[in-house]
Amino acid sequence: MPEHTTPAPPTKAVSNGIAPPELDLPYPDRPEIITSNLLKLTELASDQRKRLIFKNLVTHLHQFISETGITTEEWMNTIQFLTRVGKTCTPIRQEFILLSDVLGASALVDALNHPAVGGTTESSVLGPFFTDDAPDLNAGDSIASEGSGEYLFVEGYVRSTSGNPIADALIETWETDSHGFYDTQKAIRDIPDCRGRLRTDKDGKYSYRAVVPVSYPIPADGPVGDLLQLMGRHNMRPNHLHLVIEAAGYHKLTTALYPEGDQFLASDAVFGVKKSLIVKFRDVNDEAEARRRGFPKGGSFKLLEFDIVLASKEEWSATQAQLQKQ
């Protein structure tokens, strides 16, 4: 095996190799010439879609700067803020996703790209707390360690738009504990907790034990928390369960379920709540039933029954094609 060596640093600055463009680019002696020249340069992008994106980005960014009269100090503060956002990111904390969420960008992109198709379950934002190390579980297993909160049992069916069961669908689910913390926010995270991965049975049924989620503040100890303070906005999310569902031949669904009655439903800090995703918990005060469902301490528990409807890839492609024509 050849020995690994670190490449020597360059001895001089290196061009990217692109020649000066053959364009009429007046010297930027006035503000409007800066915008005009940059719009001409966006035409050099390699394909039509990229040209459209760069053109609109430049147009609206420059329009915002001009109309708002952004000062040099304000712009430098913005750059420093974004630098802080980047430095706050870690393998288990994504501050840029959080920034996108609180500005409504994540929800807007999701709404535009994932409309409901023929009675399918609506989508919601992924959020910044997804991890790829959730343990694999069997039906009825618990995603939460004992003592994480009030008992909750979640069950339902995954079906197609025609009502047929979808067997072997993969469901990833995660939530906070009763203190409003995801496992990634804890000082010590020995193993994943309050998250799991399971599959539907031959009838499309899924079931798992969890805990009743609680409303919680998104992290306030970073630049996004500072931004919300400046805007005079609260940093609370209503209680919810995250779910991502995948099945062969079907479009992947990212969604969340929001129990009714939470005071933050309408003003969710990340704009994730949709009316169809508001659900009702049922109180079950039956010791024997609690034991039968696997709750170690028995007693009472809450029950959430929710059926998930997925769009086939063909249905999804047809909807996307229709949207592009509009």
Automatic annotation (TrEMBL):
Residues 128-310 form the Intradiol ring-cleavage dioxygenases domain. It comes from the Eukaryota. Keywords: Dioxygenase, Iron, Metal-binding, Oxidoreductase. It holds the Pfam family Dioxygenase_N. Gene3D superfamilies: Aromatic compound dioxygenase. Residues 1-21 are annotated as: Disordered. One of its GO terms (molecular function) is catechol 1,2-dioxygenase activity. InterPro entries: Catechol_dOase_N, Intradiol_dOase_C, Intradiol_dOase_core, Intradiol_RC_Dioxygenase. Its cofactor is Fe(3+). GO terms for biological process: catechol-containing compound metabolic process. Residues 47-118 form the Catechol dioxygenase N-terminal domain. Belongs to the intradiol ring-cleavage dioxygenase family. This is Intradiol ring-cleavage dioxygenases domain-containing protein.
